[in-house]
Amino acid sequence: MCGIVGYIGTQKAKPILINGLLRLEYRGYDSAGIATIENNVIKNIKNKGRVNDLLSIPEIETLDGTIGIGHTRWATHGKPSSTNSHPHLDNSNTFAVVHNGIIENYAELRKDLENKGYKFLSETDTEVIPNLIHYFFSNSSLTGEMKFLNAVNEACKLLVGSFALEILCSLYPNSMLVVRKDSPLVIGTSQTENYISSDIPAILSFTKDFYLLNDLEFAYLTRDTVKFFDNNLNQISKNTTSIEWNATAAEKDGFEDFMLKEIFEQPKSIRETIGSHINGKCVINDLNISKEYLESINKIFIVACGTAMHAGLACKSVLEQICEISTEVDIASEFRYRNPLINEKTLCIFISQSGETADTIAALKLAKERGSKTIAISNVIGSSISREADYTIYTHAGPEIAVASTKAYTSQIMILNILALYFAQILERNLDKVEALKQELLEVPNKVEQCLKLANEVKEFANKVYKEKDIFFLGRGIDYSSSLEASLKLKEISYIHSEAYAAGELKHGPIALIENDITVVALITVPYLVEKSISNIQEVITRGAKTLIITNQDLGNKTFDKIIRIPEASEYVSPILSIIPMQLFAYYISKEKGLDVDKPRNLAKSVTVE
Length: 610
Ligand code: M6R
Description:
Structural class: alpha/beta
Distance between the termini: 11 Å
Shape: globular
Oligomer: single chain
Strand order of the largest sheet: 3-2-4-1-10-9-11-15
Bound molecules: 5-amino-5-deoxy-1-O-phosphono-D-mannitol
């Protein structure tokens, strides 16, 4: 999705904006642009293509201002082109705006502005914003900063949809305004400089102190001050939040790609996620959940998108078996529109690495409206989801930059297991199993280290099959949910068509797709399902499939093409282990195909629009 950066300080803005935009590249984009102010004139350079392409536009040399805004665009309204790229200016070139989000009523606003004599150059929804601001500004009798603020506030009142905005005004060359609604934006601050970004890692090398804006709060920035206003333009105060991540956490640190680095970071990210949660007992501080409440609920919903949803699927059984609470896992974009049966007897858990996924946030708002208690699991401190939920539990995976989620997934499974144990302790249910699983969770980082040692074996098999057009994944029970995640990983970074099936479903249709030499990957980690799984795999072998088996079981002398042996674990923990070779499998196939592993086509790291 779009990324925005901003700078106001004593240094030249251009290199800082370019640096920030490069760090936001992972979010996915097709155009980029920056604008600065010098001598009360806005200079604006933008084009379709990569951030580095901006540097070859000769006029960029003339951007010397110490205040500026920048944008990477992920096209929604209008194709990628120079005209459609941000920043967008109003007709008088007084206001420059970058926008992340979608203005749903832009067509109507555009028509009104056209009737007032405004002309539009682009096909975007964003271009209405600078012109609306200009309209309110030129019709205002206010003076000073309130005139600028008021015009932006009046414009925002008319916008339906989501937006994170940075606004420059040539008449206010020493200030910048920002506002957000349902779209991410953070303000990094230091004594003589202020920074804006869509997310923390992009400006982490400049500061560790951040202000977080709530919906429809405005920040009026100068070089050394930040003032905050609500949408009645009353001044409000805010404290900074200090972020523990260090800047190198957002660097490749010697690895070829962020994805590989993040795969190999998993022993550490899982250890940090366990943190102080397992200390004698399982503890989740600040989660004010009583035994009476847990006894009163009849259902847990886990709601999320993509990989985060797969983490939910991987943990359905631990909540059901250890806590004895019926648990349903739902896709956020379905949940929000399917009128789910939720009330005060349902506990809803929302998982989001970024904490900014539009569908997950909307689902959370729905659950709250219907009286359900809500818990968010997020990797980003202060993210939108954490501000909406009744409670937030953070995974401490560190910044995840690669679009394909790896370390966030395994940390999400870890934290859900800990949460299940915490609930079971409160409910005093299955305490012997709680104790056993608690011990097992502590051993997971070491077992993940063992899985990472399988990298070369996995690479060898990946290099044999990287030219395939289709690869199928099979699993039963918990291995089915891991197969779904393995298949998602493969398709998003290798562009190989892939499906995951519950192995028992094969005969009900998918087996028709199996033909000579096709690759089938099977996950077999549940002891009581081994024989059943093997029968299913024999069926595909009989039809000529090449097979890769990921297992923690002794499968004897079967005729598989390759067996990758992972450490033994219970079915609650095995999804963390079995996914490691599958992440590596997807990674090595993508590399062998020469693809951009970290920034796969058409995908964005955080999906902040519907
Ligand atoms: O930030 P979130 O966890 O809410 O993101 C959810 C999905 O968009 C995300 O997991 C996506 O499926 C990844 N690209 C998977 O690798």
